[in-house]
Amino acid sequence: MGAAQPPLIRVTNLHKTYRMGRALVPVLRGVSLEVGEGEFVAVLGASGSGKSTLLHLMGGLDRPDATPRAEIVYRGVEMTGASVAALDRYRTLDVGFIFQFYHLLPELNVIENVLVGAMIRLGRLGYMRRGGEERDRAAALLDTVGLSHRLKHRPAELSGGERQRVAIARALMNDPSLLLADEPTGNLDHATGERVLEALLALREQGRRTMVVVTHDPDIAARADRVLRLADGVFETS
Amino acid sequence: MYQALLTRRYLTSKVMPLLASLAVVLCTALVLITWSVMGGFLTMLIGSGRTMTGDVVVQWPTTGFAHYEDFIERLKKDPMVEAAAPMIEAYGIAGMPDGRTQTVMIRGVDARFGEVTKYRDVIWWKPISEPLPRDYTREDPRLGSPELMQRLHAQGLSFTRTDNGVEKPAAVLGVEVSGFNRRDPAGFYTPRVRDRLLPDGGLDEVNVFLPSYGDITINVLPLDQSGGVIGTRTAKFPVANEFQSGIYELDNKLVLLRLDALQEMLHMQQAERVVDEPGTGALGQPGALGQPQGQTIIDPARVTHVLVRGRGDMGQRGAAEPLLERVTQIYEEFADAHRGEVPSVFLISIMTWEDLNRTMIQAVEKETALVLFLFGIMSLTAVFLVLAIFWAMVVEKTRDIGILRALGASRSGIVWLWLRYGLAIGLVGASLGVGLAYLVVSNINPIHEWMGRALSVQIWDPKIYYFLLIPNQVETPRAVLVLMVFVLSSMIGALIPAARAARLDPVASLRFE
Ligand SMILES: Nc1ncnc2c1ncn2[C@@H]1O[C@H](COP(=O)(O)OP(=O)(O)O)[C@@H](O)[C@H]1O
Ligand SMILES: [Mg+2]
Predict the structure, then answer these.
(1) Which of A23, A227, B39, B344 has minimal CB crowding within 10 Å?
(2) Is residue A14 part of a domain?
(3) What is the total count of domains within chain A?
(4) C-alpha A96 – ligand 2 centre gap (Å)
(5) Whole-angstrom Cα distance, residue B417 to residue B425?
């Protein structure tokens, strides 16, 4: 069904090998995938199978092995050979990351955590000019995830589910086309995970965002448009 | 923008940056305090070099040069010259009322000495209305008996003392020369009793207040034109007053005598000389080759020095140079007018106060270099402290750096985050340090006294340093420079951790626990 539309991102023959001292650890060995615009793909796989590695590569946070040559094409643009600055911009504008362990900045309060992305995008002068609007948008996003009463709280004062909802709001701050979520409910109990998932799906729906979610959660997998299984460094063909 | 926000938050919510700031505070304060006190001390020291010499000194030692009054007249006509005074410098032995003798430097001067030098300011025995700053119990003898002090002051200005209705040329001693003054820690002097050692092993108590009725014996060696000793001359002089210049070398060694008296002792006064030329006399042809036999000629009086004071303040380094040039020109004209009778301009020595105090000024410059060295060491210390603390903070914040990179922050953005952080810590630390230094320096004397009382520590002993108070001024340019250097040091210290932070692999940072 994703193939019917032009893919938002196309990954071809992705290899990633880590070096552990002298030993080479091949984690991804020829992963290929296409994700269509607006599609929701769930990636399953055993722990250590390279799911996070795949997300990091798709999100421009890391680079694949130089050989064999991989291709990551986002909206028709080749990203593997892109400049550092281009990857920075790609992460700023087009990608929203959500992590298993929330990864909020502990010294900043909730709304500031959400605003950091906007600060990075706008730079100092831009942010000084547009800070008001961005604040409103951040507050609105936090309202959508049900945290309007927690704007000034520090992450340490929030529960795991609340933290993850802050992280979701943060990932959406710059209105990215591609959401990459790495076990977003993996650290939460079932009921909380359910609410977080609802929030995520609601927000995705609003912008018809493309989403790749790494998960062990069968509920998430059940709601995905497509489920892929990573094993031995490649996707299983089911 | 996120850098500003995070810097602010990191600063207020962490102990590490407080430690880093504190380190910068201490380094900044230490350097500024040391520099201010040392600098103030050195400024005072350099200033004191001029106290007893004036701005430019013309000298022809040992034999002296004649017609100096004409030279002084010529000098005083020049607009650059404020005053000029004749002086003789010689060495001698002084005998004290308690029988001790010591070698002294003798300067013959007259009232004009006070116009050229700071002599009038450093006369010790004079009426004062306010006690010295640390003389809380008003024990300074000068505070009482104003008539006596008035008289002593007048004696000091005129270099004379009237004993039993007879006015005599008198001596003014450096306050430490005689040993008859005891210096109080508060900085004033009280006359003290001394013992004269008798040949039979006994002691004889000598209790005199020198400026009132003490005499000293001065022995000098008059020299002929070639520097040979003609004989010794001894004379007794009443003591008119004493002076405290603040320079130990002078206060302990210098005796001022009235010029005419010293000239007389050294055979430098105006003298009549009978020329007895056997050749001319034998030929009996008076007038053909010069003076006739037995003619009296007048040798004019001589001095070894003429001191010149310029108009305006010449206390800055190099400020006396134009005056030196002008005095040299005037001397050249003077020497032309007295050709054959005075040293030529090429031979005479004309120096500024700076040239005269070259050794001391060089020592001062060395000490300044020492301060700058300390400055450098402390800056390096600040750099390394900030570096070490920032290194630890970067490690602690590794995951945050990964998060920021995942959100799109660039490497340069991360570098700027840490540099900014260093800048903030430097600004906070250095500003507080400068503030602390201001506080300490401006209260350094009370603090020092408190230390003296509470801990019995006296770091600044006026017996050694000769200045009663520790310099307590912070010069603004110095404060600004120190501030800037330590802000810069903090940023330099942050540079390496910042570079490290920027080079962290974002993925590894995110996995970092
Ligand atoms: N920096 C690294 N160096 C060496 N090995 C790594 C590194 N990062 C990840 N790995 C290894 O790569 C494998 C895949 O990791 P990951 O992508 O996190 O798997 P998953 O998310 O599926 O659990 C794991 O075996 C992990 O130990
Ligand atoms: Mg993982």
Answers:
(1) A23
(2) no
(3) 1
(4) 17
(5) 12
